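Below is how a single chain appears once it has passed through the pipeline. First comes the sequence as given, then the structure the pipeline wrote out for it. We keep one example in the README because the format questions we get most often are answered faster by looking than by reading.
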Amino acid sequence: MTQYPTSIGTADEASIQLLGQDLAADLMGRVGFAELAFWLVALRRPTAGELRMFETVLVALADHGFTPTVIAARLTLTGAPESLQGALAAGLLGGGSRFLGVTEDAGRFLDEALARHAAAGAPAPTTDDDWDALARLAIDRQRAARLFVPGLGHTLHKNGDPRTPVLFRIAAEEGVLGPHLRLFQAIGRVHPEILGRTLPLNGAGACGAALADLGFPPEILRGFALLARTAGLLGHLAEEMRRPIGLDLYADIEHATDYRPPNG
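Resulting structure:
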């Protein structure tokens, strides 16, 4: 008979097992949701410092106002008020290279730069000068490929993302300021001399670096951004039910429509 192995969980008539624990007896009321989310992905419990950093990341990514993902969720609920799941999914589906996906993109960019450095047999950076040199190489590589540096710049917080220094501070306090965050810091220091302008290190990029330093692989990082933003979207949808704006948005766009027939 075919077997389908899993280390996550299982259930029978009398009990539910999750991560080798009895859900009712060992986890409920004893483990917070963020700790459980970390444990489910890493298959290990976080240390106290790791958990504080992880929770900081989730809070940082939970909401950013009326973003396109929020508008999509609210308008979907307007069109299908019976489908909360559809509205929530609509908001999550917009998590890409401009919104929410930056967390993964920055983590992947930093991870690849560190891997190339190690593969070249170069010694691990230890000083700010070492990190700055590695940051210059990483930025130059992106420029040569005509690509943006993920995590650099923000459409709203042009003079500094308020989340970023908090993420660095807590990582330092908890002893989890690792190579990805160190490289991200260096990018913040050296990019003006290369790009000819100063851009802020955005919070989403810092979150990606922090998650990578916690040991998570790049391909899972966007999932945590979506997990965090789910809470924000649910809040917006609850507000949409209490104080709807979806029909007003629709009316504003309809009244502002400038219809232009195609030529010919």
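The first strand starts at residue 9 and ends at 11.

See the next section for the split statistics.
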